[in-house]
Design a protein that fits this description.
The protein is of the alpha/beta class and 333 residues long. The protein folds into two domains: 109 residues, no CATH class; 203 residues, 3-Layer(aba) Sandwich (Rossmann fold), CATH 3.40.50.410. The protein is built from eleven helices and eleven strands. The strands form three sheets. The protein has a six-stranded mixed β-sheet with strand order 5-4-3-6-7-10, sandwiched between helices. Strands 1-2-11 form a three-stranded antiparallel β-sheet. It has a two-stranded antiparallel ribbon with strand order 8-9.
Length: 333
């Protein structure tokens, strides 16, 4: 209610000058010359006290004055000013390219590399309020899991549903990067970014990683590459049982860092190595800082007419006054 009153503005405020007449009418009614002649007596015994009806008749005009006040306010065209802020920014279009090969289930991260990568990526998406973000996944093949969108809830939902094993096995870094490049090729954003995360080496696919990197450079896209995995040995899937569950054994972490560095350098990006959940979060924080944009805030007002509220209130009060003055509170000369 307080917000409603403080945000009310009037389109025709000069009608409000008519409100001066209301207190004059009140004064004239209670203290004016039209009052009935008075008779001074020594005692009021025998006259009886004024009835409730008599008091109500005396104050009946209050309904009329309130109705008149409502009509005057309606004439002044009250409007509710809804203040809003429109954020206009040079948004960045970002595609996350995430490796879904079975090695992403390695246990050197808790519970595994994939779950940590999904969680940290979702936190990054939350921070990028003004950006369009898409999601590409790859292993032995690649496809777009989520096209570029400003609805970050959808992106995070897709991230949470990612699992290893539903794509052909392998690590086609070139295919994953090429798919991400294709998603950004029609973007009109000033800055177009790909964040490619993998834990291995390119070992399949018909597009070479450096070829895809050259495509990104020609289209003005920047690629940040992330190698995720500890150094040394890690408990990694080595095969599948007949029931579809993975067989784990220790294997050396094999990330082709020179390749990921080349991809980043070709496109003007940067390569990062994440050996823990904490370091992966720091990687995304650094990328977040590297790809900041200026935010221009434009304030505007939207109005909604509220004169109908006062008009309806005035009619109700006026009708109530008329009904009472002709029935229960009717007076006779």
């Amino acid at each position: 209610m307080i917000d409603f009153i403080t945000n009310i503005e009037f389109e025709s405020p000069w009608f409000l000058t008519l409100l001066v007449a209301i207190p004059l009418m009140v004064y004239y009614h209670f203290y004016g010359e039209h009052r009935l002649p008075s008779l001074k007596v020594s005692t009021v015994k025998g006259f009886g006290a004024a009835t409730l009806r008599a008091r109500a008749v005396r104050y009946l005009p209050i309904l009329f004055w309130l109705a008149l006040t409502s009509f005057i306010l309606a004439l002044a065209r009250p409007q509710l000013a809804l203040k809003e802020e429109e954020v206009t920014a040079e948004g960045i279009d970002i595609v996350l390219a995430l490796d879904l090969s079975s090695s992403m289930l390695a246990k050197d991260f808790s519970p595994d590399r994939l779950e940590v990568s999904k969680r940290v990526a979702a936190e990054f998406v939350t921070k990028r309020v003004d950006d369009h973000i898409g999601l590409v996944v790859f292993s032995g093949e690649s496809f777009t899991q989520c096209p570029l969108t400003s609805d970050h809830r959808i992106v995070k939902r897709f991230l949470s549903q990612l699992q290893c094993g539903f794509l052909e096995e392998g690590t086609a870094i070139g295919m994953g990067l090429a798919t991400a490049v294709n998603r950004l090729k029609d973007s009109e954003a000033k800055s177009r970014v790909i964040i490619l995360l993998t834990d291995g080496d390119n070992n399949t696919g018909y597009i070479k990683p450096l070829t895809a990197a050259e495509m990104a450079r020609e289209l003005g896209q920047t690629v940040y590459t992330i190698g995720v995995g500890s150094k040394g040995m890690a408990l990694t899937p080595q095969g599948k049982r007949s029931d579809g569950s993975y067989v784990f054994d220790y294997a050396r972490v094999m990330i082709n860092e020179p390749l990921l560095q080349q991809i980043a350098e070709i496109t003007g990006g940067k390569y990062f190595r994440a050996t823990s959940e904490e370091s992966l979060a720091l990687v995304y924080d650094e990328i977040d800082q590297l790809e900041k944009t200026e935010r221009e805030v434009t304030t505007f007002k939207r109005y909604s007419d509220e004169f109908g509220v006062f008009l309806r209130l005035g009619i109700i009060l006026f009708v109530l006054h008329m009904v009472l003055s002709l029935t229960l509170l009717r007076t006779y000369p």
